Amino acid sequence: MMQTIDTNRPPYGILAVLMVGAFIAFLNNTLLNIALPAIMADFHVEAPTVQWLTTGYMLINGILIPATAFLIQKYSVRRLFIVAMGLFTLGTILAGAAHIFPLLLMGRMTQASGSAILMPLLMNVMLVSFPVEKRGTAMGFFGLIMMGAPAIGPTLSGWIVEHYDWRMLFHFLTPIAIAVFIGGLLLLKDKKEKSDIRLDIYSLLLSSVGFGSLLYGFSSAGNKGWESPLVYGTIIIGAVSLVVFILRQKKQEKPMLNFGVFKYPMYALSITISMVIAMALFSGMILTPIYVQTLRGISPMDAGLLMLPGALIMAVMSPITGRLFDKFGGRVLAIMGLAIITITSYYFSQLTFETTYMHLIVLYSIRMFGMSMVMMPVSTNGLNQLPRSFYPHGTAMNNTMQQMSGAIGTALLITVMSNRTQTHATELASTLAPNATTPEAMAEFNQQIMMMAMLEGINDAFFVTVFISAVALVLAVFIKRAKQAEEPVGDGKVTLSPKLVEN
Asked: Which intervals hold domain Major facilitator superfamily (MFS) profile (predicted)?
């Protein structure tokens, strides 16, 4: 049965509830980063252990997001939202009440299980709620949430951690999450026609092992190093599982995740550009805090404030770029945005110990302005080419690939920074003569060398993002305004999605 929607009257009430829920879920992604040192001290755990609060969150997302294509086709928006928001709320309460680290980790992973469903669900509802010619504006507001909330997270958490206990990060989210959950119960009234689609357990298992292992392997590479058996072992297991998963999906009459989306050229191009941009985006979000806090001694609060103007610019620009996309298409916006990202990435590769705080704010804000012109227009243009029955698969694939590229990009850039720091430290030690006569003076000299080496290592990592951005810039030249493809007929591989929303 074909999926129908009243495009003259989009379900704004449903969208409002979904957007608020998605906002606090996305905000939660980066809310904990600045609080990790305080949590380490409180629970007396080491960095590799506390890192599971972020790695575990990413792993759950990697396991569940691929399954959302099946869930969206099988269940109603109301049921999925209530389950997802219920899990997120339960996880928030658990984490806020945690008196031991395992309970905090359990709460965090429960949060992630709800958050993983919310983003593809909201994106899918927006795709079926608006016609192609109005979709850019609608997705612009979605971009406001997707990019704005995680960017605001460090500033908000910096302020909370500086003035209150880290548990307040969860306590302030709890009443909002409960209110959104109740709002979903009262406002979401959509019905779902009966679907005979069944979940293939082997596909779910292969997908979980494949995406989960790859995410874990790449996200661990920055800390453990590429030579660690745990790193390359999990990456190999993940890659093999993923190959078997893809082959199994091709044979399935009703695949859990349909890789046929890559047959549509604008979608394939958009997801490639989005993955490259996710790598570049993470360079700013990972390397900038390391530079300002570790090398410059700037407080967590001020480090968060440094990123706030960029977050606000993205929030303001997302709806504007959505309207511009509807009028001019994605290519012009993508080329301009990627040119800005490439140029600002180069200037970020020229940081010194004298770089002013204001210079960093301006540079980071301009870079975020460029990001706002690329992320949602490129994704929307690709999704516009898909037939409606492919929307759940397209949104799930989009979100999964962005998670993967974020983990790969982070691992790549941290590795570049670490390796180049060691190289520069060796070079500096051999060229600079120590003017030290006491062990204390020698220790201070060595510390200065490591600081100088780390600065150069960060600059080298940013320089790599110049080339990453340039690749995306070249690809953007080939973007064309996408037209919705017709539904495939008679291939026996696609289950047309039943009606998602009834007004």
From this structure: 14-484
